[in-house]
Amino acid sequence: MSTPRLVAVTALAPAVWGTTYAVTTEFLPPGRPLFTALVRALPAGLLLVAVTRTLPGGGWWWRAAVLGTLNIGMFFPLLFLSAYRLPGGVAAVLGALQPLIVAALTRAALRENVPVHRVLAGIAATAGVCLVVLRADAALDAVGVAAGLLGAAGMAAGLVLTRMWGKPDGVSDLALTGWQLTAGGLLIAPLTFVVEGMPSTLDGAAVGGYLWLGLVGTAVAYTLWFRGVARLPALRVSLLGALSPLTAALLGWLALGQALSPLQLTGFALALTATVLGQLPAPPVLRPRTRPVRPDDRRPEISRRT
């Protein structure tokens, strides 16, 4: 698969995640963040493990547990905690900081050069998301802010580790995704039963919403996401995350009748443009310049006395 096509397919994941807000508010029972996280992760993970009939081997047992904890088991509850304690716009902005965290971790853990234009794209995309989702009366909550930042940092670390570890030979993207979803779901399960318990009833709309989030929003989307992470630079993939709040805003306008002001439209265009430019090679002005070696620059050879 060509790189542009791989980027486009990977971008489908955050675009699908952008439907989570509309599905949650319109179809799911309120006040059930942990149960929603559990239903998203564990059934999808078990389904992928059953379909692929592949279990981790050797050191991949603990690696799958670590990745599942960072990408799913820790991220989902913190995401919902942040969303419940903060206005949606503030929570989205905290999530949009992930590319900058990925840039720092890429440099520290992978020892890879971080292209300047992608860092600038991450800053511009975050600014654009701020314009789209933030409101002047947005209130801050210390616990919510801490949860949002910790969730973004955890998923950023999971993204970098996924890139660093790759996957075992002969193991499919579906299997690796299934391992992580199962590990994360098993971590969420006891928290769900202790803190929330099971909902008393679920109507048809809720069942349909959970099926969408579990099958499409999790099993399919995370498979596409981890596939891209394994084949593309981590920072390049993380920049695509801005598509999630942008999709949520677009759906709110198209399906829920939420108006978009000129300032929000400007932010939308800024974030989308920055995300696209972040996928392109560095422009010549930002590439390191090298001067051709001239004959005068070469060190003279020192003859050895005989």
TrEMBL record:
Domain of life, per lineage: Bacteria
Disordered, as annotated region: 286-306
Positions of the EamA domain: 11-133, 144-277
Entry keyword Cell cycle: no
Compartments in which it is found: Membrane
Recorded topology in the membrane: Multi-pass membrane protein
Keywords: Membrane, Transmembrane, Transmembrane helix
A Pfam entry, by short name: EamA
Biased composition (Basic and acidic residues): 293-306
GO cellular component labels: membrane
Major localization class: membrane
Transmembrane segments: 64-84, 90-110, 119-136, 142-162, 207-225, 237-256, 262-282
Family: Belongs to the EamA transporter family.
Protein name: Putative blue pigment (Indigoidine) exporter
Higher taxonomy: Bacteria, Bacillati, Actinomycetota, Actinomycetes, Streptosporangiales
